[in-house]
Every structure is written in structure tokens, then in C-alpha cells.
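Exercise: predict the structure of this protein bound to uridine-5'-diphosphate.
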Amino acid sequence: MEPLAEERILGVPVDVADEPTALAHLIDLVKLGQPAVAVAVNPEKVLAARDNPWLLRFLEGAALRIPDGVGIVWASHRQGGAIEKRLTGMDLFLRLTEAASKEHWSVFLLGAKPGVADAAARAFGRAYPELQVAGVRDGYFPLDQGGEVAAQVRASGATILFVAMGSPRQEHWLFEHFLETGSVLAMGVGGGFDVVAGRVRRAPHWIQTLGLEWLFRFLLQPRARWRRMGSLVRFAVEIRRQPV
Ligand code: UDP
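Solution:
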């Protein structure tokens, strides 16, 4: 298996991978059977990883750090890097689910509000009738029950675990409990179940093509997102401060 090229954005590792490369990499990892984690890296996570040593360690150990966000592409371009296009965690999540259905790998959906993971499982069932969903669970459990949740995933026998608890909660839970889950591949998918279940709308394709999905999300949920806009600005300032 070819290793992916890695780049550092403000010292935080991100892999150089387009969608086919990233998907092939994940499929190879599952076939290999060695436990692996995939995680999307956006500007917010880069800043968080600089402030939180555990998150940096988690990213260092992840098998795939997805270059998610126009900010990452811009930063890479500025430092003469090779990340040319944004790859959203959301798109990769959908492609991986499709692959799981073809390969007969069972999946566990962990996260989002009660009822959402079930709704996402039903939506997936309509799109991919062959998909085996080993289990679902919402993401609103107390942190001291993290081990019980891992035991539930293990008991389900799922091969692939999707975790949609937002950041950094999903990364933190995976950092502490992934190896207890017995699953081969885990991927953090943020608000992905809300989208699959039809509770949250994604930006239209043309807005995504223009690299403006962040603005769309901000206009849809200004209260929830304004803090995040602040970190985008901070990220841009820090990148510009770097010597070119
Ligand atoms: N969530 C959860 N447990 C929590 C807090 C949040 O499962 O304790 C879920 C929430 O319901 C939503 C997702 O995590 O489905 C967060 O979505 P967001 O779009 O904010 O994800 P991010 O942008 O952080 O990837």
C-alpha cells in the first residue's frame, strides 16, 4: 500500500489526497484489517490541534487526515504545497458508505440527536439496500459513559464506525475509546448524519464549487457559527504571518 504524501499546515499534518486516492486508501486499510482512523482537518481543527496536544497526537496517529476546507487548500498553495482541491469529509463519508455496501462491511452510526442516526440508517437503506447497519446510537451520552458506548459498538461487530458528534467531542471519544470498539475503521463525520437524515441542508453544488460553503453555513445558522468565523480569521492571519 502506497503511503500518502503528508503536508504540515501550521505544524499540523494533513494528507495530500483527492477523493479517489483517499477512498482507495481507506478501502485498502479495511482489507488489511489493521485498526485505522480517518479524520477531516479544517482550519478550525488546525488551530485546535496547536492548542491541544492530545488532538495533535490523535491527528499524528490517524491513517487519513482529509484536507477539508478551502482554507486548507489556500494555506497549502501559499506555502508551495500540493493540496489542490478540497475534499469534504461529507463526500468521503458517502463514498465510503457506498463502498461498505458493495463490500458487505457492516457499519455503526454513532452520534447526532436521538432519532437522527436511525433516520440516517433508513435513508442509507433506501440508497444502498445491501448496506448492513450493525447498530446506531445518539451522541448525547455523558463522557464517563464513553467506555459503555465503545462496548456497544464492539458487541455489534461493526467493521466501520462513523462518529458524528462534532469536534472536538468525536475526536476525543475516538482518541480514548477507538481501540475498544473492535471496528477496523472509524471516521469522524461531524454533522454528517443530520445531512443524510435530511435535517440539515448542504450548500448547493455551485456554492461548493466557489468554495463558499462556510459562508452558506454561516448564513443558515449565524448564532451557532459566528465563533467559528472568528477562528477562520485567526487561521488566515496566522498563515499570512508565516514567511512565504
Ligand atoms: N453532537 C452530538 N453530541 C454532542 C454534541 C453534538 O452527537 O454532545 C452532534 C450534533 O447533533 C450534530 C453534530 O454533532 O449532529 C455536530 O455537527 P456540526 O455540523 O457542528 O459538526 P462539525 O462542524 O463540528 O464537524
